[in-house]
From TrEMBL:
Organismal lineage: Bacteria, Pseudomonadati, Pseudomonadota, Gammaproteobacteria, Alteromonadales
Domain GST N-terminal: 43-126
SUPFAM superfamilies: Thioredoxin-like
Organism: Alteromonas naphthalenivorans
Record's protein name: Glutaredoxin
Signal sequence extent: none
Amino acid sequence: MKFFITLIRNLLGAIIAFVDVITRGTKLKRSPEQQVQVAEESQNLALYQFFGCPFCIKTRRAMYKYNLPIQKRNVSEGSPYREELLQGGGKIQTPCLRIENNDGVEWLYDSKAIIGYLETRFVEAK
Ligand SMILES: N[C@@H](CCC(=O)N[C@@H](CS)C(=O)NCC(=O)O)C(=O)O
């Protein structure tokens, strides 16, 4: 039974991911200098995620739209990133954005909060 639930979940995830790719539109355009700056800042960020998770897809769409090359870290069973997320953030829930700054590391859960953070930092402020 667990096998069929996992199969259906993965199948639905793959369909949603496919529809996402063919409908995601164009990326935000910046000057080359601005994009270099954004790419540098993005190196201090990482998205802990599942490939087929709808909330992760929503977050990845925003990252694509805002042209943010943020590393994606899959937290499937057996991945070392799963343990990192659990230890750092405190729970296995995706998406979660790992934010490294001068004060240390922050773990931001919830797709709406993550997208809001990215918009404030990379879209509205520029
Ligand atoms: N309100 C949250 C919901 C996130 C959520 O429910 N994520 C699911 C995956 S789609 C999850 O991490 N579930 C825990 C698990 O699968 O262990 C958001 O918008 O990010």
